[in-house]
From TrEMBL:
Pfam families: ATP_bind_1 (PF03029). Keywords: GTP-binding, Hydrolase, Nucleotide-binding. This is ATP/GTP-binding protein. InterPro entries: Gliding_Motility_GTPase (IPR052705), Gpn (IPR004130), P-loop_NTPase (IPR027417). It comes from the Bacteria. It comes from Streptomyces violaceus. Belongs to the GPN-loop GTPase family.
């Protein structure tokens, strides 16, 4: 770009921006996922865990975690010149859930990260997006020391509708995260098309 115009003399393209949330329980890998794929240095609002928070922040299964997101994580991916994806990682602890309504405003869809060691921590996020009819995908973050289960067993344990995509992913791996994000966009497009069809029939 030169002085606000492209080198070929064409006016700059105003990109379409899409917003995707990354949600899930405490310590499930939301901050890691945003950082793995963002083209900019992610905005993070992490604070150190303190002794005062130990009675509220259950770190069983994630004993090595020393920080927590207190507002959001933010990252950006340019898919094409005219298409930009904004990622917003939600805070995991219950006391910060009041922020979810603000963050979900205008969201195309969401990735709900799950950890097989603490599947119950994903129930709140699944319930949140189901109640608000926001299309979402569940990504099981494959931690090295986490037990592996057949994907249909995980679907049953989370009580997911058949239409909700469920996949295994690695929040540290850029390609794995991209696959999950593409899945969300495709699911959201199919969901929107289904809603339009329902209205016209």
């Amino acid at each position: 770009m030169i002085f606000g115009r492209s080198e070929r003399g064409k006016p700059p393209v105003e990109p379409v921006t899409l917003k995707i949330l990354v949600a899930g329980g405490f310590g499930v890998g939301k901050t890691t996922l945003v950082g793995a794929v963002s083209e900019i240095r992610p905005l993070r609002t992490e604070e150190l865990l303190t002794e005062a928070g130990r009675p509220i922040d259950d770190t069983s299964g994630v004993e090595g975690k020393h920080t927590t997101t207190v507002a959001m994580d933010f990252g950006r991916i340019t898919l094409r010149e005219d298409l930009v994806l904004y990622l917003f990682g939600t805070p995991g602890q219950e006391r910060f859930w009041f922020m979810w309504d603000e963050l979900s405003e205008g969201a195309l869809g969401a990735v709900v990260l799950a950890d097989t060691r603490r599947l119950e921590d994903s129930f709140a996020a699944v319930d949140y997006f189901e109640r608000r009819s926001i299309p979402f995908l569940v990504g099981v973050n494959c931690f090295e020391d986490a037990p592996r289960y057949p994907i249909e067993d995980v679907r049953q344990a989370l009580d997911l509708d058949d239409g909700v995509p469920l996949l295994m992913c690695d929040a540290r791996d850029r390609e794995s995260v991209k696959e999950a994000l593409i899945g969300v966009v495709q699911h959201a497009m199919a969901y929107a098309a289904g809603q339009r069809q329902t209205v016209t029939t």
